[in-house]
Amino acid sequence: MQKIFLFLLILANPIILSAQKTTINRKVAQKNYEGYVLMVQKKYSEALPHFNEAIQQDPEAYFVYQNRAVCYLSLGDTL
Q1: How much is the pTM?
Q2: Helix 2-18 to helix 62-74 angle, to the nearest 10 degrees?
Q3: How far is CA 62 from CA 24, 39, 47, 57, in A?
Q4: What pLDDT score does 44 carry?
């Protein structure tokens, strides 16, 4: 299941990139970065609040949704 999701994520990447905003709020970028650092360290549960806060501040920052989805997937939460 994870391999299928990752394949679809990679397949959709060009679509996601074309839908990205041209400017990003500094606070949103910082929260995304903090979450990303934790995600790379495989601290998925700790990364989620950072991504959630970034999404709350800017619901159109679609790249944050992707990072949050990777965390949920890694935790086995596929809903």
Answers
A1: 0.71
A2: 170
A3: 11, 17, 16, 12
A4: 97
